Amino acid sequence: MAYLLISVACSVLVSVLLKLMQRRGIDTAQGITWNYLAASLLCFGLLDPPLAALGHADTPWAELGLLALLLPGIFLALSASVRAAGIVRTDIAQRMSLVLSLLAAFLWFGEQANALRIAGLVLGVGAIACLVARPERGPRGGGWQAWALPLVVLVGYASVDVLLKRLAAAGTPFAASLQVAFVAAFTVMLCMQGARAWRTRVAFTGAALGAGLLLGTLNFANILFYVKAHRALPDHPAVVFSMMNIGVVVLGTLVGVLGFGERLGRLNLLAIPLAIIAIGLIAAGIG
């Protein structure tokens, strides 16, 4: 249980830190760059990735390369969504990506649909529709970005999940996949920030470095303790799955509304119970 609580807290704290960085004028793109440096070092030091396994001729380098490009892109979208739509809607969008992941599992990975999973899928689609509704009219509602960016986050995280499933199906060790993706994502982001600094004379800052290293620590801790929770409860994957996703939805809502005063419309509020019920049904279908 402790592993799950830590994983949930770290997941929400990623969004909180992005919000605080934006409020304090810290360059989030630079922070995301250093985030991947921290994640790479922690992955190498704590998971001991079997990199030798990548030497096989059938290693899916195309999927690894796509994952390396998608990771920084989705993190930038996550940051933009936190700014435009808030922590609550962004965290729910991130967790509702499981709806698209489940659909992909039915279509491409041969997983069997059952009544509970289908019901969860339908409710999940309803939650997504309520999620992207504008909380209010006018410019304070966030404009098109307030609904478009959570959708980008949702699709992006689902795409990452599909790529990880493809890598697992190819026999690529999870830790090795993460290590390569983190290092490549850091390289891509560092090159982008170097070009940006040369073109616009935006200097690298110590504040962005410190915040980025903390961001990477939280990002990696979320993954690490989620994996540990599954290992601690190997016979109860549905319990771990449901508690993780529901925990992030609930805690993200509390932090966003109580901590940052985010305003939600009636449809946005309806997305919360729909998302929780959908997660519960999907988890029951797994179990």
SSE topology:
Elements: H1 2-23, H2 28-47, H3 61-85, H4 87-108, H5 115-131, H6 145-169, H7 174-200, H8 206-232, H9 237-260, H10 266-286
Domain EamA: 3-132
InterPro entries: EamA_dom, EmrE-like
Transmembrane segments: 6-22, 34-55, 61-80, 92-109, 115-134, 146-164, 170-190, 202-227, 239-260, 267-286
Keywords:
single chain; globular; mainly alpha; 287 residues; 80% helix
Describe the protein.
- The protein is an all-alpha fold and 287 residues long.
- The protein has one domain (2-286).
- It is built from ten helices and no strands.
- Helix 5 (115-131) runs antiparallel to helix 10 (266-286).
- The mean pLDDT is 88.
- Pfam families: EamA.
Helical content class: over 70%
* Number of helices, where a helix is a run of at least 4 consecutive DSSP H or I residues: 10
Mean of residue pLDDT values: 88
Radius of gyration: 19 Å
As for the number of domains, it is: 1
Q: What is the strand tally?
A: 0
Strand content: under 5%
Q: Uncertain spans, ≥5 residues at pLDDT below 50? A: none
Distance between the termini: 18 Å
The quaternary organization reads as single chain
**Structural class by SSE content:** mainly alpha
State the major sheet: none
Shape category = globular
What's the order of the H and E elements?
Answer: HHHHHHHHHH
